[in-house]
């Protein structure tokens, strides 16, 4: 079968259309791959968002726990301060009591010494 120019032109047109279709197919594959990658990235982003929300809730619980511990520590500090004041007051009272007792002992010693002196003088 002899080739004529019109057939060559038709073949060239068909080859051009095939090339265009192959180009569009390649573009479609790239777009599809990009869309698939994009969808994968979106899934990863959603996972990251879920992790961030979970971590945010955990941080919030930790902040609440820290606030509770700070409040408890403040109450303990107040209690220790109160106990310290009571102990200091008791210590001061005991010091005063010991000073008083020492004074009594000193007086008693002086009385005993005077009595001994009186007895010694009486016996002479």
From TrEMBL:
Keyword tags: Coiled coil, Membrane, Transmembrane, Transmembrane helix
Transmembrane segments: 97-123
Keyword Coiled coil applies: yes
Coiled-coil region(s): 11-86
Gene3D superfamilies found in the cross-reference section: 1.20.5.170
Official protein name in the record: DUF1640 domain-containing protein
Annotated organism of origin: Massilia eburnea
